[in-house]
Amino acid sequence: MAESYRLSLLTYLQLASRNLLRNRRRTLITLLTMSFGIATLTLLSALNDGWLSQMKTNFILSYTGHLQIHAKGFEASQNLNDRILEPEEISRLMQGYPEIVGWTQRIRTSGLASAGGSSAGLQIMATDPEQETWVTSMDQRVTEGVWLRPGMSHDLVLGHTVAQNLGAELGDRVILMVQRLNGEMTSEVFFLRGILETGAPQIDRSLALITLNSAQQWLQMEDSVTDIVIRADNHDNTGTLYRLFAQQLSERKYEIMQWLELDPMVKQWLEFSDAYGFVVLLVVIILVLIEILNTMLISLHERQKELGVIVAIGTKRSQVFSMLLLEAVMLIFIGAILGYMAGSSIVYAVADRGINLTHFANAFEFFYMDPIIHPQLTLGSAVKILGATLIAALLAGIYPAWRATHLSLSQALRIQ
Amino acid sequence: MVKPIISIRELHKCYWVGTMPFPALHGINLDIKPGEFAVVAGRSGSGKSTLLNIIGALESVDNGNVEVLGHDILNMNRDLRTQFRLRNIGFVFQAYNLIRVFTARENVAYVCQLQGKSRKESLDIANHWLHEVEIGHLGYRRPDQLSGGQQQRVAVARALASGPKLILADEPTANLDSMTGRHLINLMHELNQRLGTTFLISSHDPDVKRAAGRLIKLADGQIVDSWDEVPKTPQSLASSCPTSHLPLKERLRKLLYQRRKARASKGKVDHR
Questions:
Q1: How many CA atoms lie within 13 A of A370 on its CB side?
Q2: What's the total number of domains in chain A?
Q3: Domain containing residue B183: CATH number
Q4: d(CA A3, CA B114)
């Protein structure tokens, strides 16, 4: 006798939609509240994604590139003896990969600079000036003077804070002092040709740039370098390139580092942003959940008798459960779509112009951020927002639906 | 001998409000034969609705046996009862109880859809039954666009649409004016005669009683030939509600009540 019949989806949808329209004002208020929450969430996510993307781009283009290849142990020791002896062999590997926009070879070492009566500790970076322009945007960040050119053997560019600290001006003599491969100290005179502002204070207060050829001669390193820096066509291809080089280069001789590993603070900041985004998502979803739960419970209370009747005439309790659950899901789904559309519209409206937060520019600078944030809609955050609201719908629908299946039939039918 | 469609033996049902027992049915024995047009008459609170709800597998009992269409409905689980109602029983309620968001024909078609019929077939069946109850032209109206009499006709059509062998109608004319009520009862009687469907109707409406093929009079939860209202004390009410069949929670509640009563009367003796 216990045959099981299914109601068609159309019947369920018809019941759910008409029940939602039964009290239009209440449904409208619920939808508006929910849409407002989802729209706010969409906007906050877009802002978060926008400034994270800006931060990544600024970080990568200001100095690190997407990937760096070093001789094994160099990043930890910063010792010139841990160097790449045949950089051209590795450079040849770069050809033929469309994901690579450019690469450059560098020598990095720490040293001392003195000009006039002042001196300062700094990071000396020697690079191929032409190749560097394919990898980072340092050449565009020169605010005074000129960017390096090949053949400038005794010229240097300084970060603007270093220049300030040394009291050096364009054309001034700056003496750099470093340790050679054999351990002896050596110094050389350079002329200040340019001052740059990368936007990252930690770089601007420590960077001295010279050409690769002059550094190789001065430090007696022949053709060897300490870094090969690669720029990918987009952030998402970093992993692909990492795997590619990991396969081709000996793990014992080389270390390959992604941009995220090169600055632990940036990594921590990105993780913090994810956590912050999650908390905001959670708070909004909980509010949505409470709103729906409240609406559904009031609706359930008003319809006890009708639910009693539909069970009395033969509706299974599982079918009643599905009806109520579908109602909640439908309500949240419509609210989520409306909210997401409203939020997206605001994002599109301000995306190009950006949101100007110049007032907080100093704080943003520290995190490689521009003071004008361009909100950005990403597929990931759309999936997160809509997925989370769907889960909220299920959670908010389950309890009223369960309550509906546990109504006392005789009591429900007696309600006047 | 024809096997009864409803067979009830020693049926007891008691409601508890807090610790106060309210016996609704007390020792009911009843057989209803197939095709009967039977009316259960009695004043408000006499147990008519409770009896119909029990026969309709909507309510549990404290004691007794109830067989409907040869099935012991008291030993069925919740889902089996639902299926049983869907296949065998049609309901007509006092307050019509149509689904507000459905049109008249969707209300009638709904039970057919529950039985697994396609939407189109269900709507065809609904149209047929709405014509049978003479409101075929009102199929597209929602309940709030229909008069009480029209709504009750939709309810009758809904009750018949699932092809039940038994229709239970609880005070179907109570919310209707006498003329509309009379028409409805005539319609139900005519359907009973033509289709052979058994009708069991609870009512205190004289018109309904006059139409009855069989009249069952209830008073204070018992079947009587004539009204016999004897005011009962709480003690006698309690004693008419056996506890052995009750769930533990209710047994405890009743025990507490009896204890409190005993303590109160003992207190009175000591005081004297």
A1: 16
A2: 2
A3: 3.40.50.300
A4: 11
Q: Are A165 and A159 in contact (CB under 8 A)?
A: no
Alpha carbon distance B213, B232 (integer Å): 32
Residue A290 lies in a domain: yes
pLDDT tier at A8 (50, 70, 90 boundaries)? Answer: confident
Q: What is the span of the domain harbouring residue B144? A: 6-241
- Reported as a single tens digit per residue, the pLDDT across A209-218 is 999 999 999 9
Residue in this structure with the two tokens 């189109």, named with its chain if needed: B120
Dihedrals φ, ψ of A279, to 5°? -65, -45
pTM, to two decimals: 0.70
Asked whether the CA dihedral B230, B235, B238, B243 is positive or negative, the reply is negative
Domain end, chosen from A218, A251, A284, is at A251
pLDDT of B233? 39
User: Is A314's CB within 8 Å of B162's CB?
Assistant: yes
The C-alpha atoms of residue B204 and residue A115 are separated, in whole angstroms, by: 113
How much of chain A exceeds pLDDT 70, in percent? 96
d(CA A164, CA A168): 6
Using one digit for the tens of pLDDT, what is the confidence trace for A125-139?
999 999 999 999 889
A100-131 pLDDT tens trace: 989 999 999 999 999 988 889 999 999 999 99
Nearest-CA distance from B52 to chain A in Å?
11
- Distance between CA A333 and CA A388 in Å, rounded? 11
Nearest CA to A103 out of A217, A3, A231 is that of A231
- A336, A34 Cβ separation under 8 angstroms: yes
Question: What distance in Å separates residue B26's CA from the closest CA in chain A?
Answer: 18
Task: Give contacts of B22 with chain A, Cβ < 8 Å.
Answer: none
List of chain B residues with pLDDT < 70: 1, 225-255, 257-258, 260-261, 264-272
pLDDT tens for residues A56-98?
888 888 888 999 999 998 888 888 888 998 888 888 888 878 8
d(CA A384, CA A58): 26
Residues A194 and A297 in one domain: no
**Number of domains making up chain B:** 1
**Predicted local confidence at residue B202, as pLDDT:** 93
Q: Which of A205, A208, A203 is nearest to A189 (CA)?
A: A208
Mutate to test the interface with B, among A15, A24, A313, A410 (most CBs of B within 10 A): A313
Residue B188 φ/ψ region, left for φ over 0, alpha for ψ in the -120 to 50 degree band, beta for the rest: alpha
Interacting residues of A227 by C-beta distance below 8 A, sequence separation 6+: A68, A69, A70, A74, A84, A105, A106, A107, A108
**Shortest alpha-carbon distance between residue A325 and chain B (Å):** 17
In whole angstroms, give the CA distance from residue A194 to residue A156: 7
Looking at the fold, whether A294 and A247 belong to one and the same domain comes out as no
- Quick one: pLDDT at residue A98? 86
Name residues 37-56 of chain B within 8 A of A (Cβ). 53, 56
Measured between CA atoms, the residue of chain B closest to residue A311 is B82
Which of A146-155, A156-165, A353-362 shows the lowest per-residue confidence on average (mean pLDDT)? Answer: A353-362
Among the partner-chain residues B82, B87, B93, the one whose CB lies closest to the CB of A311 is: B82
A1 domain residue, yes or no: no
Between CA B109 and CA A201 the distance in angstroms is 74
Distance from CA of B262 to the nearest CA of A (A): 32
Chain A stretch 314-333, residues whose beta carbon is closer than 8 A to a beta carbon of chain B? 314-317, 319
Return the pLDDT at B257.
Answer: 63
Span A336-382, pLDDT tens digits: 899 999 999 999 998 888 887 777 766 666 566 677 788 888 888 88
